Amino acid sequence: MCGLAGEIRFDGARPDPDAVRRMSDRLAPRGPDGAGAWSRGPAALAHRRLKIIDLSDLGAQPMTDAEDEVTGVFNGCIYNYQELRRELRGLGHRFVSTSDTEVVLRAYRQWGTACVDHLYGMFAFALVEHRTGRLILGRDRLGVKPLYLAETPGRLRFASSLPALLAAGDVDTSLDPVALHQYLSWHATVAAPRTILTGVRKLPPATVRVVEPDGRHQDHRYWQPSYTRRPEHAGMGPSEWRDAVLEALRTAVRRRMVADVPVGVLLSGGLDSSLIVALLADEGQRDLATFSVGFESEGGVEGDEFAYSDLIAKEFDTDHHRLMVPSARVSAALDAAIAAMSEPMISHDTVAFHLLSEQVAKEVKVVQSGQGADEVFAGYHWYPELAAAPRADAADQYARTYFDRGHDDLAAMLAPDLLPPDDVSGRFVREHMAVPGAETSLDAALRLDTHVMLVDDPVKRVDNMTMDWGLEARVPFLDHELVELAAACPPELKLADGGKGVLKEAGRKLLPHGVVDRPKGYFPVPAITHMAGPVLERVREALGAPEAKRRGLFRESCLAELLAAPDEHRTRRGANTLWQVALLEIWLQTHGV
């Protein structure tokens, strides 16, 4: 797990070493254990290392293969790297390290761009072919690891974070109206390849891009589950599906224990993280470090779920760590969390993850997290409503159920020059859901949520907040084989028992029933949920700043109405509208846009 950056020129010039160094410097928190750089001809690469696998200097990056044919940088972890290493050795490849990075280089030498089909894990990589000058960029199937791009005439820069590209300079920082529309419609989700900035794009998940020396490029999407019922699962009943899901999750959790350092678990006390702990205990893991965070109650809202996490910690005898955060600490930590965001994210638990990661990183370098289970196994309360819609109406029902507001509502909020002429967010959903392969309305909604919304909201949130403290977070519920199995699982089994039915049945084999059958919990951060005190002061300061006035994103009448009643204006989903508006402006100011 690390940070990567680079530049390639198409105009005959050499890369700008100062710009590449600035990108590397901005990525330092992602890789506090080492730094490296490489340049040859029109290409330059930089890397910041977090030592997880092969702690020796032989695992340092950028790494060049033994035949001096390919140089690459890599961010993430290949969970099956040991098996691939043995396979590649049998095919005649020589290794000088025990790192998974070298396995990626060798896999590319053996299979070309099809190497990604052999990689089980989370990854983003950039490889330069010495002979041809081609640049190969790749991203994992579920987009767990980020890869941002900034292209100008004659040049392409890339990095593990958007702020790193800003540090390099010469980026078009005007706002992308389509992305802004998605941000305000889709609960801050901006679908790849867009970002909120016109001059920055991101490589989509499950994509390999081959960039030619003249700048032309071709993308190949290498993975997408069908979300249909498959012949090999015909005749499986609920108990068979339960056992299949449990076994696939067991494999996913076991894979994510591969490391040359200890691996802990972020334990909320909910079903998902509790299952991870139970499966690790079942595998014989002892003295497992687990971590929970809680906040002071405010406005009648409870700020912790320690009762449940304590129960699991006691049940499986973990080395448990509680972190109770006072409200004053939340407001003080807000700016640091926003500085860690590659893109503006409005979920309240972003600050919680940042605070938790700060403490966890003092104890371990790697944790497993339960993120993704709700999107993969239909755990949210809105899925039954989506499932009830006819397949032809799935997109419209999704927008009504999940979007924060409609296109017409945006006309009263945004400056006229930033409002697209039509409902671009709704059109994106309709086009995505119209793609063949999802049998039912629920299949179509889960496909969209898993491969778009999940990538550019919850997963990005975890990556950004953990990596800002040099902490690697692994997400077993996004193991691609588990996702494939869940995609084929009959909708009624996922919807059963109030959502995640098949997963709850698996949980009953390992967990106390009080944890499995508890009401669904969220990551409450009352100090932000209720707009008051220092957080409200920060919001007023940002929206009244000269930069905000000059930018003029929102109508003055809209801002005046929101600030007059900070806690009253809510989206369809109950989110605070003022927070959505202010968070975007604070993010832009924080990153010097």
TrEMBL record:
Its EC number is 6.3.5.4. Residues 15-40 are annotated as: Disordered. Pathway: Amino-acid biosynthesis; L-asparagine biosynthesis; L-asparagine from L-aspartate (L-Gln route): step 1/1. It comes from the Bacteria. It catalyses: L-aspartate + L-glutamine + ATP + H2O = L-asparagine + L-glutamate + AMP + diphosphate + H(+). Residues 2-214 form the Glutamine amidotransferase type-2 domain. Keywords: Amino-acid biosynthesis, Asparagine biosynthesis, ATP-binding, Glutamine amidotransferase, Nucleotide-binding. InterPro entries: Asn_synth_AEB, Asn_synthase, ASN_synthetase/amidase, AsnB_N, Asparagine_synth, GATase_2_dom, Ntn_hydrolases_N, Rossmann-like_a/b/a_fold. Residues 15-28 have a biased composition (Basic and acidic residues). PROSITE patterns: GATASE_TYPE_2. Pfam families: Asn_synthase, GATase_7. PANTHER family: ASPARAGINE SYNTHETASE, ASPARAGINE SYNTHETASE (GLUTAMINE-HYDROLYZING). Belongs to the asparagine synthetase family. This is asparagine synthase (glutamine-hydrolyzing).
